[in-house]
Amino acid sequence: MQPGSILCVTLGGDATQVLEPLIARGWDVTQAGDLVAAGRIQAHRHFKVGVLIVGASLNVPEAAVEACVNASPGSEWVTLCETEALEHPGFRELVLGCFFDHRVMPIDLGELEMTLQHADQRALLRLRHDAAHRHAVDALGMVGQGPAITRLRQQIRKVAATDAPVLIGGESGSGKELAARAIHQCSQRSAGPFVAVNCGAISPNLIQSELFGHERGAFTGASSERRGLIEAANGGTIFLDEIGDLPVELQTNLLRFLQEKTISRVGAVRNLHVDVRVVAASHVDLAEAVAVGQFRDDLFYRLNVLSIEVAPLRRRMEDVPILAEYFFQRCAAKSRARVKGFSRQAVAAMLAHAWPGNVRELFNRVQRAVVMTDRRLIGPNDLGLAPADNPVGMGLDVARTVAERDAIVLTLTRVGRNITHAARELGVSRMTLYRLMDKHSIALDSEVRPHVTQPWPTPQPNLRTAPAASTANPLETMLGTPVPGFHADWTGAGKPSGRA
User: Fold this and answer.
1) Could you list the residue ranges forming a coiled coil in this record (predicted)?
2) Which domains does the chain have, with CATH numbers?
Protein backbone atom coordinates (compact mmCIF):
# COMPACT_ATOMS: atom_id res chain seq x y z
CA MET A 1 0.00 0.00 0.00
CA GLN A 2 1.32 3.44 -0.95
CA PRO A 3 1.74 5.96 1.92
CA GLY A 4 -1.03 8.55 2.01
CA SER A 5 -1.63 12.03 3.41
CA ILE A 6 -2.05 12.70 7.10
CA LEU A 7 -2.69 15.75 9.27
CA CYS A 8 -0.45 15.83 12.34
CA VAL A 9 -1.51 18.04 15.29
CA THR A 10 1.15 18.47 17.98
CA LEU A 11 -0.04 19.47 21.45
CA GLY A 12 3.02 18.29 23.38
CA GLY A 13 5.90 15.86 23.32
CA ASP A 14 8.64 15.43 20.72
CA ALA A 15 7.08 15.18 17.26
CA THR A 16 10.36 14.97 15.32
CA GLN A 17 11.03 11.34 16.27
CA VAL A 18 7.72 10.44 14.60
CA LEU A 19 7.33 12.86 11.70
CA GLU A 20 10.81 12.69 10.16
CA PRO A 21 10.78 8.87 9.71
CA LEU A 22 7.25 9.03 8.25
CA ILE A 23 8.25 11.71 5.77
CA ALA A 24 11.35 9.70 4.85
CA ARG A 25 9.12 6.70 4.06
CA GLY A 26 6.95 8.71 1.68
CA TRP A 27 4.06 9.88 3.86
CA ASP A 28 2.65 13.32 2.98
CA VAL A 29 2.54 15.00 6.40
CA THR A 30 0.85 18.36 7.02
CA GLN A 31 1.75 19.76 10.43
CA ALA A 32 -0.32 21.95 12.77
CA GLY A 33 1.13 23.36 15.99
CA ASP A 34 -2.23 23.85 17.75
CA LEU A 35 -5.94 23.25 17.35
CA VAL A 36 -6.59 26.65 15.77
CA ALA A 37 -4.10 25.96 12.99
CA ALA A 38 -5.57 22.48 12.55
CA GLY A 39 -9.04 24.00 12.12
CA ARG A 40 -7.81 26.37 9.40
CA ILE A 41 -6.17 23.50 7.52
CA GLN A 42 -9.25 21.27 7.79
CA ALA A 43 -11.41 24.06 6.37
CA HIS A 44 -9.50 23.90 3.07
CA ARG A 45 -8.42 20.26 2.80
CA HIS A 46 -9.79 16.87 3.74
CA PHE A 47 -7.56 14.23 5.31
CA LYS A 48 -8.55 10.59 5.63
CA VAL A 49 -6.19 10.16 8.61
CA GLY A 50 -5.26 12.51 11.44
CA VAL A 51 -2.58 12.09 14.11
CA LEU A 52 -2.69 13.84 17.50
CA ILE A 53 0.58 13.92 19.45
CA VAL A 54 0.21 14.54 23.19
CA GLY A 55 2.90 14.70 25.88
CA ALA A 56 2.53 13.55 29.45
CA SER A 57 -0.76 15.44 29.82
CA LEU A 58 -3.35 17.18 27.67
CA ASN A 59 -2.89 20.95 27.98
CA VAL A 60 -6.16 21.89 26.23
CA PRO A 61 -9.79 21.07 27.11
CA GLU A 62 -11.03 17.66 25.98
CA ALA A 63 -14.03 19.37 24.32
CA ALA A 64 -11.70 21.37 22.07
CA VAL A 65 -9.92 18.20 20.93
CA GLU A 66 -13.25 16.48 20.32
CA ALA A 67 -14.41 19.44 18.21
CA CYS A 68 -11.23 19.25 16.14
CA VAL A 69 -11.67 15.51 15.55
CA ASN A 70 -15.33 15.90 14.57
CA ALA A 71 -14.63 18.87 12.27
CA SER A 72 -13.62 16.50 9.48
CA PRO A 73 -16.38 13.92 8.94
CA GLY A 74 -15.12 10.64 7.55
CA SER A 75 -11.59 11.01 8.96
CA GLU A 76 -9.99 8.47 11.28
CA TRP A 77 -7.74 9.72 14.09
CA VAL A 78 -4.83 8.10 15.92
CA THR A 79 -3.31 9.58 19.06
CA LEU A 80 0.33 9.19 20.21
CA CYS A 81 0.83 9.88 23.90
CA GLU A 82 2.95 9.27 26.96
CA THR A 83 1.86 6.64 29.48
CA GLU A 84 1.12 9.36 32.05
CA ALA A 85 -1.53 10.92 29.79
CA LEU A 86 -3.63 7.77 29.96
CA GLU A 87 -3.82 8.09 33.74
CA HIS A 88 -6.27 11.00 33.35
CA PRO A 89 -9.91 9.75 33.15
CA GLY A 90 -10.98 12.56 30.84
CA PHE A 91 -8.27 11.76 28.30
CA ARG A 92 -9.01 8.03 28.45
CA GLU A 93 -12.66 8.71 27.74
CA LEU A 94 -11.66 10.95 24.84
CA VAL A 95 -9.44 8.25 23.33
CA LEU A 96 -12.12 5.57 23.68
CA GLY A 97 -14.86 7.73 22.20
CA CYS A 98 -13.18 9.68 19.41
CA PHE A 99 -10.07 7.87 18.16
CA PHE A 100 -9.55 4.89 15.87
CA ASP A 101 -6.47 3.77 17.84
CA HIS A 102 -3.68 5.01 20.14
CA ARG A 103 0.04 4.30 20.55
CA VAL A 104 2.21 4.88 23.60
CA MET A 105 5.60 6.56 23.20
CA PRO A 106 8.29 5.58 22.40
CA ILE A 107 6.79 4.57 19.08
CA ASP A 108 7.64 1.48 17.05
CA LEU A 109 7.65 2.87 13.51
CA GLY A 110 6.55 -0.41 11.90
CA GLU A 111 3.53 -0.73 14.19
CA LEU A 112 2.67 2.95 13.65
CA GLU A 113 2.74 2.58 9.87
CA MET A 114 0.50 -0.47 10.08
CA THR A 115 -1.96 1.46 12.27
CA LEU A 116 -1.99 4.43 9.87
CA GLN A 117 -2.59 2.12 6.91
CA HIS A 118 -5.52 0.45 8.70
CA ALA A 119 -6.95 3.87 9.55
CA ASP A 120 -6.59 4.95 5.92
CA GLN A 121 -8.46 1.87 4.69
CA ARG A 122 -11.20 2.34 7.28
CA ALA A 123 -11.65 5.98 6.23
CA LEU A 124 -11.91 4.87 2.60
CA LEU A 125 -14.53 2.27 3.55
CA ARG A 126 -16.49 4.93 5.46
CA LEU A 127 -16.43 7.25 2.43
CA ARG A 128 -17.81 4.48 0.21
CA HIS A 129 -20.50 3.68 2.78
CA ASP A 130 -21.54 7.33 3.06
CA ALA A 131 -21.65 7.66 -0.73
CA ALA A 132 -23.96 4.64 -1.00
CA HIS A 133 -26.10 6.07 1.80
CA ARG A 134 -26.44 9.41 -0.01
CA HIS A 135 -27.44 7.53 -3.15
CA ALA A 136 -30.27 5.86 -1.21
CA VAL A 137 -31.77 9.28 -0.42
CA ASP A 138 -33.21 10.71 -3.61
CA ALA A 139 -34.28 14.21 -4.55
CA LEU A 140 -37.77 13.46 -3.25
CA GLY A 141 -36.44 12.96 0.26
CA MET A 142 -37.47 9.30 0.21
CA VAL A 143 -35.00 6.83 1.72
CA GLY A 144 -34.61 3.26 0.55
CA GLN A 145 -33.67 1.06 -2.38
CA GLY A 146 -36.09 -1.87 -2.08
CA PRO A 147 -38.82 -2.83 -4.58
CA ALA A 148 -41.63 -1.20 -2.55
CA ILE A 149 -40.00 2.24 -2.34
CA THR A 150 -38.83 2.02 -5.96
CA ARG A 151 -42.39 1.31 -7.10
CA LEU A 152 -43.69 4.19 -4.95
CA ARG A 153 -41.22 6.61 -6.56
CA GLN A 154 -42.41 5.56 -10.00
CA GLN A 155 -46.07 6.01 -9.05
CA ILE A 156 -45.38 9.44 -7.56
CA ARG A 157 -43.72 10.69 -10.73
CA LYS A 158 -46.65 9.41 -12.80
CA VAL A 159 -49.42 11.01 -10.73
CA ALA A 160 -47.44 14.24 -10.36
CA ALA A 161 -47.74 14.84 -14.11
CA THR A 162 -51.49 15.52 -13.81
CA ASP A 163 -53.77 17.72 -11.69
CA ALA A 164 -56.25 14.97 -10.81
CA PRO A 165 -56.97 14.26 -7.13
CA VAL A 166 -54.79 11.62 -5.48
CA LEU A 167 -55.79 9.29 -2.65
CA ILE A 168 -52.91 7.87 -0.63
CA GLY A 169 -53.45 4.78 1.49
CA GLY A 170 -51.23 3.34 4.16
CA GLU A 171 -50.88 2.73 7.88
CA SER A 172 -50.15 5.47 10.38
CA GLY A 173 -46.47 6.42 10.43
CA SER A 174 -45.70 4.85 7.04
CA GLY A 175 -44.89 8.17 5.31
CA LYS A 176 -48.09 9.30 3.59
CA GLU A 177 -47.36 13.01 4.08
CA LEU A 178 -43.85 12.54 2.69
CA ALA A 179 -45.39 10.95 -0.40
CA ALA A 180 -47.81 13.88 -0.71
CA ARG A 181 -44.96 16.38 -0.49
CA ALA A 182 -43.05 14.42 -3.14
CA ILE A 183 -46.08 14.59 -5.47
CA HIS A 184 -46.23 18.36 -4.99
CA GLN A 185 -42.48 18.72 -5.48
CA CYS A 186 -42.56 16.77 -8.77
CA SER A 187 -45.59 18.60 -10.14
CA GLN A 188 -45.87 21.86 -12.06
CA ARG A 189 -47.25 23.38 -8.84
CA SER A 190 -43.96 22.96 -6.97
CA ALA A 191 -43.45 26.75 -6.85
CA GLY A 192 -46.84 27.16 -5.15
CA PRO A 193 -47.73 26.51 -1.50
CA PHE A 194 -48.12 23.08 0.05
CA VAL A 195 -50.68 23.16 2.87
CA ALA A 196 -51.06 20.09 5.08
CA VAL A 197 -54.26 19.67 7.09
CA ASN A 198 -54.90 16.93 9.67
CA CYS A 199 -58.65 16.55 9.46
CA GLY A 200 -58.75 14.48 12.64
CA ALA A 201 -56.94 17.09 14.73
CA ILE A 202 -59.34 19.99 14.13
CA SER A 203 -62.45 20.41 16.25
CA PRO A 204 -65.65 19.57 14.31
CA ASN A 205 -67.04 22.98 15.31
CA LEU A 206 -64.11 24.80 13.69
CA ILE A 207 -63.16 22.64 10.74
CA GLN A 208 -65.50 24.36 8.24
CA SER A 209 -64.09 27.76 9.17
CA GLU A 210 -60.53 26.39 9.06
CA LEU A 211 -60.92 24.85 5.61
CA PHE A 212 -63.14 27.42 3.89
CA GLY A 213 -62.53 30.60 5.93
CA HIS A 214 -65.14 33.04 7.24
CA GLU A 215 -66.37 36.58 6.78
CA ARG A 216 -66.36 39.23 9.45
CA GLY A 217 -69.32 38.81 11.80
CA ALA A 218 -70.15 35.33 10.48
CA PHE A 219 -70.30 34.04 14.06
CA THR A 220 -69.48 35.17 17.57
CA GLY A 221 -65.80 36.01 17.76
CA ALA A 222 -65.31 36.50 14.00
CA SER A 223 -64.03 40.05 14.31
CA SER A 224 -62.33 40.00 10.89
CA GLU A 225 -62.45 38.02 7.70
CA ARG A 226 -60.11 35.06 7.46
CA ARG A 227 -58.85 32.99 4.55
CA GLY A 228 -59.33 29.28 4.89
CA LEU A 229 -56.65 26.64 4.33
CA ILE A 230 -58.00 25.71 0.90
CA GLU A 231 -57.81 29.35 -0.21
CA ALA A 232 -54.31 29.62 1.27
CA ALA A 233 -53.21 26.76 -0.99
CA ASN A 234 -54.33 28.59 -4.14
CA GLY A 235 -51.88 27.81 -6.95
CA GLY A 236 -50.45 24.85 -5.07
CA THR A 237 -51.50 21.65 -3.30
CA ILE A 238 -53.59 20.96 -0.23
CA PHE A 239 -52.98 17.70 1.61
CA LEU A 240 -56.00 16.44 3.56
CA ASP A 241 -54.56 13.90 5.97
CA GLU A 242 -56.89 11.42 7.72
CA ILE A 243 -59.78 12.53 5.53
CA GLY A 244 -61.77 9.58 6.82
CA ASP A 245 -62.23 11.56 10.06
CA LEU A 246 -63.95 14.43 8.22
CA PRO A 247 -67.54 14.94 9.51
CA VAL A 248 -70.20 13.70 7.09
CA GLU A 249 -71.94 17.08 6.96
CA LEU A 250 -68.73 18.76 5.81
CA GLN A 251 -68.07 16.18 3.13
CA THR A 252 -70.81 17.79 1.00
CA ASN A 253 -68.96 21.13 0.93
CA LEU A 254 -65.70 19.41 0.02
CA LEU A 255 -67.45 17.52 -2.80
CA ARG A 256 -68.77 20.79 -4.23
CA PHE A 257 -65.27 22.26 -4.12
CA LEU A 258 -63.83 19.24 -5.98
CA GLN A 259 -66.53 19.43 -8.65
CA GLU A 260 -66.70 23.19 -9.23
CA LYS A 261 -63.32 24.45 -7.93
CA THR A 262 -65.16 27.09 -5.90
CA ILE A 263 -65.54 27.61 -2.16
CA SER A 264 -67.80 29.72 -0.01
CA ARG A 265 -66.55 31.23 3.20
CA VAL A 266 -68.72 30.90 6.28
CA GLY A 267 -71.13 33.86 6.21
CA ALA A 268 -70.31 34.78 2.59
CA VAL A 269 -72.89 35.42 -0.16
CA ARG A 270 -70.62 34.72 -3.12
CA ASN A 271 -68.33 31.90 -4.20
CA LEU A 272 -64.59 32.19 -4.68
CA HIS A 273 -62.73 30.38 -7.45
CA VAL A 274 -59.58 28.59 -6.28
CA ASP A 275 -56.95 26.67 -8.23
CA VAL A 276 -55.87 23.95 -5.83
CA ARG A 277 -54.88 20.34 -6.30
CA VAL A 278 -56.18 17.95 -3.66
CA VAL A 279 -54.12 15.09 -2.27
CA ALA A 280 -55.88 13.11 0.46
CA ALA A 281 -54.77 10.29 2.72
CA SER A 282 -56.32 7.94 5.21
CA HIS A 283 -55.12 5.04 7.32
CA VAL A 284 -58.59 3.45 7.22
CA ASP A 285 -60.13 1.68 4.24
CA LEU A 286 -62.45 4.33 2.79
CA ALA A 287 -64.28 1.72 0.71
CA GLU A 288 -65.33 0.00 3.95
CA ALA A 289 -66.23 3.38 5.45
CA VAL A 290 -68.50 3.97 2.45
CA ALA A 291 -70.11 0.55 2.93
CA VAL A 292 -71.04 1.31 6.57
CA GLY A 293 -72.22 4.84 5.79
CA GLN A 294 -69.37 6.75 7.45
CA PHE A 295 -68.07 8.29 4.23
CA ARG A 296 -69.94 9.60 1.20
CA ASP A 297 -69.60 7.35 -1.81
CA ASP A 298 -69.67 10.25 -4.30
CA LEU A 299 -66.83 11.99 -2.43
CA PHE A 300 -64.86 8.75 -2.33
CA TYR A 301 -65.12 8.29 -6.10
CA ARG A 302 -64.22 11.93 -6.67
CA LEU A 303 -61.07 11.58 -4.54
CA ASN A 304 -60.10 8.12 -5.72
CA VAL A 305 -59.16 9.17 -9.25
CA LEU A 306 -55.48 8.29 -8.75
CA SER A 307 -54.57 6.08 -5.83
CA ILE A 308 -51.22 4.96 -4.47
CA GLU A 309 -50.37 2.81 -1.48
CA VAL A 310 -47.49 3.45 0.92
CA ALA A 311 -46.23 0.07 2.11
CA PRO A 312 -45.82 -0.50 5.86
CA LEU A 313 -42.26 -0.89 7.08
CA ARG A 314 -42.67 -4.61 7.75
CA ARG A 315 -43.15 -5.12 3.99
CA ARG A 316 -39.91 -3.29 3.11
CA MET A 317 -37.56 -4.70 5.73
CA GLU A 318 -34.62 -4.46 3.33
CA ASP A 319 -34.76 -0.67 3.84
CA VAL A 320 -34.67 -0.79 7.65
CA PRO A 321 -30.84 -0.60 7.98
CA ILE A 322 -30.72 2.24 5.42
CA LEU A 323 -33.47 4.18 7.19
CA ALA A 324 -31.87 3.58 10.59
CA GLU A 325 -28.52 4.88 9.33
CA TYR A 326 -30.21 7.93 7.77
CA PHE A 327 -32.01 8.75 11.03
CA PHE A 328 -28.83 8.11 13.00
CA GLN A 329 -26.89 10.63 10.92
CA ARG A 330 -29.64 13.23 11.40
CA CYS A 331 -29.85 12.69 15.16
CA ALA A 332 -26.08 12.44 15.70
CA ALA A 333 -25.52 15.75 13.89
CA LYS A 334 -27.69 17.47 16.52
CA SER A 335 -26.21 15.63 19.50
CA ARG A 336 -22.83 15.71 21.21
CA ALA A 337 -22.97 11.97 21.79
CA ARG A 338 -19.89 9.99 20.77
CA VAL A 339 -21.88 7.05 19.42
CA LYS A 340 -20.57 5.88 16.05
CA GLY A 341 -23.34 3.65 14.71
CA PHE A 342 -25.19 0.36 15.25
CA SER A 343 -23.84 -2.96 16.42
CA ARG A 344 -24.57 -6.10 14.40
CA GLN A 345 -26.89 -7.25 17.18
CA ALA A 346 -28.85 -3.99 16.90
CA VAL A 347 -29.27 -4.42 13.15
CA ALA A 348 -30.42 -8.02 13.64
CA ALA A 349 -32.93 -6.89 16.29
CA MET A 350 -34.30 -4.20 13.98
CA LEU A 351 -34.71 -6.73 11.17
CA ALA A 352 -36.59 -9.06 13.54
CA HIS A 353 -38.98 -6.40 14.85
CA ALA A 354 -42.51 -6.07 13.39
CA TRP A 355 -42.54 -2.22 13.42
CA PRO A 356 -46.25 -1.67 14.18
CA GLY A 357 -45.53 2.07 14.31
CA ASN A 358 -43.74 1.95 10.93
CA VAL A 359 -41.13 4.57 9.99
CA ARG A 360 -42.23 6.92 12.77
CA GLU A 361 -41.47 4.25 15.37
CA LEU A 362 -38.05 3.58 13.84
CA PHE A 363 -37.13 7.26 13.97
CA ASN A 364 -38.25 7.59 17.60
CA ARG A 365 -36.26 4.53 18.68
CA VAL A 366 -33.09 5.70 16.91
CA GLN A 367 -33.44 9.21 18.34
CA ARG A 368 -33.82 7.84 21.88
CA ALA A 369 -30.86 5.49 21.43
CA VAL A 370 -28.54 8.27 20.21
CA VAL A 371 -29.36 10.37 23.27
CA MET A 372 -29.43 7.68 25.94
CA THR A 373 -26.68 5.20 24.99
CA ASP A 374 -23.38 5.20 26.86
CA ARG A 375 -21.65 2.94 24.36
CA ARG A 376 -19.89 3.66 21.10
CA LEU A 377 -22.19 1.34 19.18
CA ILE A 378 -25.96 1.26 19.70
CA GLY A 379 -27.23 -2.11 20.93
CA PRO A 380 -30.70 -3.73 20.97
CA ASN A 381 -31.37 -2.55 24.53
CA ASP A 382 -30.66 1.06 23.56
CA LEU A 383 -33.39 0.74 20.90
CA GLY A 384 -35.81 -0.86 23.32
CA LEU A 385 -35.81 -4.07 21.26
CA ALA A 386 -35.32 -7.65 22.27
CA PRO A 387 -32.22 -9.33 20.83
CA ALA A 388 -32.93 -11.45 17.77
CA ASP A 389 -33.29 -15.17 18.44
CA ASN A 390 -30.69 -15.97 15.80
CA PRO A 391 -28.77 -12.85 14.68
CA VAL A 392 -26.40 -14.93 12.56
CA GLY A 393 -29.06 -16.32 10.25
CA MET A 394 -31.45 -19.21 9.67
CA GLY A 395 -31.56 -22.18 7.38
CA LEU A 396 -33.02 -21.82 3.90
CA ASP A 397 -35.89 -24.22 4.60
CA VAL A 398 -36.81 -22.36 7.79
CA ALA A 399 -36.62 -19.03 6.00
CA ARG A 400 -38.98 -20.31 3.28
CA THR A 401 -41.45 -21.58 5.85
CA VAL A 402 -41.41 -18.33 7.82
CA ALA A 403 -41.81 -16.24 4.67
CA GLU A 404 -44.70 -18.40 3.45
CA ARG A 405 -46.55 -18.15 6.75
CA ASP A 406 -45.99 -14.38 7.02
CA ALA A 407 -47.29 -13.85 3.47
CA ILE A 408 -50.50 -15.75 4.28
CA VAL A 409 -51.03 -13.96 7.61
CA LEU A 410 -50.47 -10.47 6.20
CA THR A 411 -52.68 -11.13 3.17
CA LEU A 412 -55.54 -12.48 5.29
CA THR A 413 -55.27 -9.43 7.52
CA ARG A 414 -55.23 -7.05 4.57
CA VAL A 415 -58.34 -8.52 2.87
CA GLY A 416 -60.37 -8.87 6.04
CA ARG A 417 -59.92 -12.66 6.30
CA ASN A 418 -61.76 -13.24 3.01
CA ILE A 419 -60.49 -16.58 1.66
CA THR A 420 -61.46 -15.89 -1.95
CA HIS A 421 -59.74 -12.51 -2.07
CA ALA A 422 -56.68 -13.79 -0.21
CA ALA A 423 -56.29 -16.76 -2.58
CA ARG A 424 -56.59 -14.49 -5.61
CA GLU A 425 -53.97 -12.09 -4.23
CA LEU A 426 -51.58 -14.93 -3.37
CA GLY A 427 -52.07 -16.53 -6.78
CA VAL A 428 -53.29 -19.91 -5.47
CA SER A 429 -56.61 -21.76 -5.42
CA ARG A 430 -58.90 -21.66 -2.40
CA MET A 431 -58.19 -25.35 -1.64
CA THR A 432 -54.44 -24.71 -1.78
CA LEU A 433 -54.85 -21.78 0.60
CA TYR A 434 -56.85 -23.95 3.02
CA ARG A 435 -54.11 -26.58 2.85
CA LEU A 436 -51.40 -23.98 3.55
CA MET A 437 -53.40 -22.54 6.44
CA ASP A 438 -53.72 -26.05 7.85
CA LYS A 439 -49.97 -26.58 7.41
CA HIS A 440 -49.11 -23.40 9.36
CA SER A 441 -51.87 -23.76 12.01
CA ILE A 442 -53.70 -20.63 10.84
CA ALA A 443 -57.42 -20.42 11.60
CA LEU A 444 -59.80 -17.69 10.46
CA ASP A 445 -61.34 -17.31 13.92
CA SER A 446 -57.97 -17.04 15.64
CA GLU A 447 -55.26 -14.45 16.03
CA VAL A 448 -52.14 -14.98 13.93
CA ARG A 449 -48.99 -12.90 13.82
CA PRO A 450 -45.94 -12.81 11.59
CA HIS A 451 -42.90 -14.75 12.81
CA VAL A 452 -41.08 -11.78 14.34
CA THR A 453 -39.57 -10.90 17.68
CA GLN A 454 -41.60 -8.31 19.59
CA PRO A 455 -40.50 -6.84 22.94
CA TRP A 456 -44.05 -6.22 24.08
CA PRO A 457 -47.55 -7.27 22.93
CA THR A 458 -48.95 -5.33 20.02
CA PRO A 459 -52.64 -5.11 19.02
CA GLN A 460 -53.30 -7.25 15.96
CA PRO A 461 -56.35 -8.04 13.83
CA ASN A 462 -58.90 -10.48 15.18
CA LEU A 463 -57.04 -13.67 14.29
CA ARG A 464 -55.77 -16.17 16.86
CA THR A 465 -53.34 -19.07 16.58
CA ALA A 466 -55.05 -22.44 16.19
CA PRO A 467 -54.83 -24.84 19.16
CA ALA A 468 -51.39 -26.41 19.39
CA ALA A 469 -52.66 -29.97 19.71
CA SER A 470 -55.95 -31.73 19.07
CA THR A 471 -56.55 -35.46 18.81
CA ALA A 472 -60.13 -35.11 17.56
CA ASN A 473 -60.91 -36.26 14.04
CA PRO A 474 -62.45 -33.21 12.30
CA LEU A 475 -64.51 -35.48 10.00
CA GLU A 476 -66.03 -37.26 13.00
CA THR A 477 -66.67 -33.88 14.64
CA MET A 478 -68.50 -32.64 11.55
CA LEU A 479 -70.59 -35.81 11.07
CA GLY A 480 -71.20 -36.40 14.75
CA THR A 481 -70.40 -40.13 14.39
CA PRO A 482 -67.16 -42.15 14.37
CA VAL A 483 -65.63 -42.86 10.99
CA PRO A 484 -64.55 -46.52 10.87
CA GLY A 485 -61.14 -47.51 9.66
CA PHE A 486 -59.62 -44.06 9.91
CA HIS A 487 -57.48 -42.50 12.60
CA ALA A 488 -55.60 -39.20 12.34
CA ASP A 489 -53.03 -37.60 14.62
CA TRP A 490 -53.66 -33.85 14.56
CA THR A 491 -50.87 -32.83 16.91
CA GLY A 492 -48.59 -31.68 14.09
CA ALA A 493 -50.31 -28.54 12.75
CA GLY A 494 -53.39 -30.56 11.69
CA LYS A 495 -51.77 -32.98 9.21
CA PRO A 496 -52.83 -36.70 9.43
CA SER A 497 -49.97 -39.06 10.14
CA GLY A 498 -51.55 -42.25 8.71
CA ARG A 499 -54.39 -44.68 8.74
CA ALA A 500 -55.31 -47.17 11.41
Assistant:
1) none
2) 5-132 (3.40.50.2300), 161-309 (3.40.50.300), 313-378 (1.10.8.60), 396-466 (1.10.10), 468-500 (no CATH)
